[in-house]
């Protein structure tokens, strides 16, 4: 889409489950650097910035080519601040210094599988939508899921689908947790990137990995090296 575009990379310092997660070494360099590189490779953003409350993260961000024009407030650096809260603060802070953007892409700092081509594609999709979200299909139909009840016994969450064939069930997707692209006007009106006119960008499971635990981290590095090896053989 036309107009000024902003890449916002969210990287606070207070990660609990994996300490210093946003700048932890991932296959040889800080994981944050992969998100910055992807934004640069997309070649569609007028500005690439990192929103952080942390001096060390800010210095690493600037080393890899991102800007840190202001620091995150205490309110948006806390455990209960949402991504939408951070985006809103960034857009308002830019407006206060006389800079406005027609669209933005909020990128998570732990997205090493993200590529410039994916980001460029998402921003192009905004020509036909107000927001774009990368999604991946659940590997097993959630409709066939089981829960453990209060007696410690298994029961079906959705018993009406007990006899349904997997191939007959509608495919359900989940958020990849990598980025959100959105028109600024739509975001400011709704207060969220999860607007009505929301298009999917469907990714494969090899391109997606939640990184919330040390086990997740190890799996992500295995996937990353596998993809890197596949690309080198093409």
Structure described in brief:
With 234 residues, this protein is α/β, with parallel strands linked by helices.
* Strand residues, percent: 15-25%
Q: What is the averaged pLDDT score?
A: 95
Give the structural class.
alpha/beta
Total helix count?
A: 6
* Computed Rg: 19 Å
Report on this model:
- This protein has 234 residues and is of the alpha/beta class.
- 30% of the residues lie in helices and 20% in strands.
- The protein is built from 6 helices and 11 strands.
- The strands form 3 sheets. Strands 1, 4, 5, 6, 9, 10 and 11 form a 7-stranded mixed beta sheet that branches.
- The model has no long low-confidence stretch (mean pLDDT 95).
Defining traits:
single chain; 6 helices; 11 strands
SSE layout and pairing:
Layout lengths: L4 E6 L14 E2 L2 E2 H12 L4 E5 L3 H9 L19 H14 L6 E5 L8 H10 L5 E7 L8 E3 L5 E3 L16 E3 L3 E5 H7 L7 E5 L11 H19 L2
Parallel strand pairs: 1-4, 1-5, 6-11
Antiparallel strand pairs: 2-3, 5-10, 6-9, 6-10, 7-8
């Amino acid at each position: 889409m036309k107009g000024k575009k902003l890449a916002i990379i969210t990287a606070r310092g207070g990660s609990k489950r994996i300490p210093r997660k946003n700048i932890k070494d991932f296959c040889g360099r800080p994981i944050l650097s992969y998100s910055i590189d992807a934004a640069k490779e997309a070649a569609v953003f007028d500005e690439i910035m990192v929103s952080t409350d942390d001096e060390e993260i800010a210095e690493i961000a600037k080393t890899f080519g991102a800007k840190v024009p202001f620091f995150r407030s205490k309110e948006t650096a806390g455990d209960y601040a949402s991504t939408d809260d951070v985006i809103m603060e960034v857009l308002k802070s830019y407006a206060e210094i006389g800079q406005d953007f027609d669209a933005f892409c909020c990128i998570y700092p732990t997205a090493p599988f993200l590529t410039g081509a994916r980001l460029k594609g998402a921003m192009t999709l905004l020509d036909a939508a107000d927001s774009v979200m990368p999604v991946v299909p659940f590997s097993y139909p959630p409709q066939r899921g089981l829960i453990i009840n209060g007696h410690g016994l298994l029961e079906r969450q959705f018993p009406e689908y007990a006899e349904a064939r997997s191939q007959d069930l509608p495919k359900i997707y989940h958020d990849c947790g990598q980025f959100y692209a959105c028109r600024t006007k739509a975001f400011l009106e709704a207060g969220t990137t999860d607007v009505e006119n929301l298009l999917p960008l469907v990714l494969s499971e090899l391109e997606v990995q939640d990184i919330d635990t040390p086990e997740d981290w190890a799996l992500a590095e295995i996937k990353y090296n596998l993809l890197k090896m596949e690309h080198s053989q093409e």
